[in-house]
């Protein structure tokens, strides 16, 4: 998801093209070999080898590179393959371990940016280093709620304000300025689901709001492999919750007492865009709007964003996709920014974080 040193990209390309004299492994052949264990595509491998805008491969992919290129037996026969580590000879095993150590060290190097020292602090998870377009997708408020707001939501009224027809405007306003500031070379726009055109789906997608009103959130969560499902609220008075289906089935629901929301449940998801694997999809959704706002604030609030970003990078961001379900405290109507470093805040992580 994040940039890496061009040295790693160059090394990965050299492994593929130069490991065995007279035999070049194509990106398609490598994708087929890796795909036997994890889904891998040619565009994904190309992004790891790009010298102009290299993308950091997850650590598990580097292990596959090391295992594949540790032995020429990987390319014997009609199909390229990954041998189990236990099947390597002692000499191949030593080569595998050396290569894995080398690739892991290259992966840890920070990329140099023009005019900035290579060890400069990262921009955070809301920075998209490839410079491509970013679109924030919101839901429209249901018609009955729009009509109840009076003249400001009537397009024929002189006082019409389109933003009043958006769901989650607080989360949108918080996020839009932050993303624009961190991505000055990217075009950053926001739209409601009904305004999207077909080219929008292949950009970096950031979805705000839950499955009740944002149908693209519902569509994307059905397409990605994450054991978290947001259960649609039967009514505004029935909060329902997020259902988690790994290690059994559990439901995490907001806390509402006497009509007051005391604690919402929010979800942060980041993964490959299923419509364009060279881009990402990010979902911030809650059972209520305050949960969505809290998921956004976790990575924009100046008091918490650095520690939350560090936690995500250390524990989750090495995976191609990851998910964090969190508590969002509401005190006297105010949303408190969730601190991901506090265990009680984190309701569920996928894949499971390591110690």
Describe what this molecule looks like in 3D:
The chain is α+β, with helices and mostly antiparallel strands and 355 residues long. The chain folds into two domains: 103 residues, no CATH class; 217 residues, no CATH class. Strands 1, 2, 3, 7, 8, 9, 10, 11 and 12 form a nine-stranded mixed sheet that branches. Strand 5 and strand 6 form a beta hairpin. Helix 4 packs antiparallel against helix 5 and helix 7 packs parallel to helix 9. The longest helix has 19 residues. The two termini are 22 Å apart. One of its GO terms (molecular function) is DNA binding. InterPro entries: Lambda_DNA-bd_dom_sf (IPR010982).
Alpha-carbon distance between the two ends: 22 Å
> Which segments are poorly predicted (pLDDT under 50) over 5 or more consecutive residues?
113-122
Helical amount: 25-40%
Based on CA atoms alone, the radius of gyration comes out at: 23 Å
Strand content: 15-25%
Mean pLDDT: 86
Number of beta-strand segments: 12
SSE series = HHHHHEHHEEHEEEEEEHHEEE
Number of helices: 10
What overall geometry do the principal axes of the alpha carbons give? Answer: elongated
Please describe the topology of this protein:
Layout: H1 6-18, H2 27-35, H3 42-49, H4 59-69, H5 90-108, E1 134-138, H6 143-147, H7 169-182, E2 188-192, E3 204-208, H8 215-223, E4 228-230, E5 242-244, E6 250-252, E7 255-257, E8 260-273, E9 276-286, H9 289-297, H10 305-315, E10 322-331, E11 334-335, E12 346-350
Parallel strand pairs: 1-2, 1-3, 3-9
Antiparallel strand pairs: 4-5, 5-6, 7-8, 8-9, 8-10, 10-11, 10-12
Helix pairs in contact: 4-5, 7-9
């Amino acid at each position: 998801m994040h940039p890496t040193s061009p040295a790693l990209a160059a090394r990965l390309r050299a492994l593929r093209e130069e490991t065995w004299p007279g035999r070049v492994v194509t990106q398609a052949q490598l994708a087929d070999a890796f795909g036997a264990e994890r889904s891998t595509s040619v565009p994904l491998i190309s992004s790891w080898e790009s010298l102009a805008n290299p993308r950091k491969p997850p650590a598990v992919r580097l292990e596959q590179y090391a295992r594949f290129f540790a032995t020429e037996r990987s390319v014997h026969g009609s199909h390229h393959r990954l041998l189990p580590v236990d099947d390597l000879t002692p000499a191949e095993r030593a080569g595998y371990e050396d290569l894995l150590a080398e690739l892991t060290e290259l992966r840890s190097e920070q990329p140099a940016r023009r005019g900035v020292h290579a060890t400069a602090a990262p921009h955070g998870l809301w920075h998209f280093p490839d410079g491509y377009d970013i679109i924030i997708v919101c839901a429209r408020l249901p018609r009955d709620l729009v009509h109840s707001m009076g003249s400001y939501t009537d397009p024929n009224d002189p006082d019409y304000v389109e933003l009043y027809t958006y769901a989650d405007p607080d989360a949108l306003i918080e996020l839009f300025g932050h993303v624009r500031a961190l991505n000055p070379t990217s075009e950053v726009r926001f739209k409601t689901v009904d305004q999207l055109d077909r080219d929008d789906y292949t950009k970096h997608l950031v979805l705000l709001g839950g499955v009740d009103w944002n149908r693209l959130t519902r569509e994307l969560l059905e397409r990605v492999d994450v054991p978290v499902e947001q259960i649609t609220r039967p009514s505004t008075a029935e909060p329902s919750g997020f259902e988690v289906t790994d290690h059994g089935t559990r439901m995490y629901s907001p806390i509402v007492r006497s009509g007051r929301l005391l604690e919402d449940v929010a979800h942060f998801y980041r993964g490959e865009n299923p419509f364009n694997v060279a881009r990402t999809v990010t979902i911030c959704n809650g059972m209520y709007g305050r949960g969505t706002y809290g998921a956004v604030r976790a990575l924009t609030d100046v008091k918490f964003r650095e520690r939350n970003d560090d936690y995500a990078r250390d524990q989750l961001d090495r995976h191609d996709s990851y998910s964090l379900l969190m508590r969002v405290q509401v005190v006297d109507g105010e949303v408190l920014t969730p601190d991901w470093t506090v265990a009680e805040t984190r309701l569920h992580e996928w894949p499971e974080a390591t110690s």
